[in-house]
Structure prediction request, 388 residues.
Amino acid sequence: MWRKNLNRILNGASAIVIFILLLTGSADAERYVVQKGDTLSYLLQDYFTFSEVNRIAQERKTKHPSEGLKAGMLAEKGSDSFALLLSPDKEVKISRTPLGGADVALITYPTDTLTTLIQGEITSNLFNAVIKVGESAELAQSLAQIFEWEIDFLKDLRRGDSFKIVVEKRFVRGKFLGYGRILAAEFDVHKGRHYAFWYKAGSKYGYFNESGNPLERGFLRVPLPYGKITSRFTDSRLHPITQKYQPHYGVDYAAPIGTPVMAAASGAVVKKSFTERNGYYIELRHSNGYHTFYLHLNGFNNSIKEGSYVKQGQVVGYVGKTGMATGAHLDYRIRYKDKWLNPLNFIAESPVFEQFDKKEFALTVDRYSKMMNLAALFALNTRPTILP
Ligand SMILES: [Zn+2]
Prediction:
């Protein structure tokens, strides 16, 4: 009975994509991992004669010169074909032709982007809740980033809080490739409900709440994906190493060595350097007189240089314990002109969206709200259906 109702409701919501994953590839295909030193001739010797192998190898070289064999690549051996899987969506297929010859073709499979609905409930933390419903930590991080100025994920979450996410997923031949964009999300925290809707206003885009106010700010609230505050901003504290009272103009986040550190805001790299006190550190200059500092790094993102420009959220380095540090942590600082600001009290400005169309945005809110309201029915779908 509920199935009938579900069908009726789904027919009314055309934007919801119901899909069945079609498993492609023949069932009798044998998978092989290309080893170091393997040659195409060696891999094909069981399938084709010596002269055929030579001709195929020659043809592959002339037709697809850049698609060479690499150790770790997957090969699929069928009964009358051999495929070299270059990437999830690309393969070189060598097949026997009806006349007994061999054909070499480079095949590119289309990528399907499907809009899916995901929901979960907090039992311990956001990461575990997202993983429990079969999704990855990457999705949890994206969700946390969207709501970072609304929800303090270290303090605000309680057991029973819940979330819904409308997210694009990319598939090739029925295989999950990765996430696309989060289009909308709802987070029910015991204190209140938060919404995020992705919307493009002219050439600028971002996430907005249900009233159309942007959720993003010029700065990230916290420049790393996870970390625990171990020391706060103060004019005087007892330094753990020097044993002297000194100001601490930053916030310390303890995190494992190697945790990525992101640029809090877009800007230029002023310093990528080392001092005995700071260890490896980075200083960025942003617009309107703001500078940010990232101290005690283990290492840098090697693609950035002093003078280069970084975007908000771009990885600039990795958490370490270099310089005067008792443990692995990031010391994050913000300076406005000559004054140090407390990063925990700092509320960055929202970007301005000049071409925001209220009517169009209302339609976006309506469309995704409808999808998220269907979440309860999808939950039913995950239980085994009892057949009469
Ligand atoms: Zn510190």
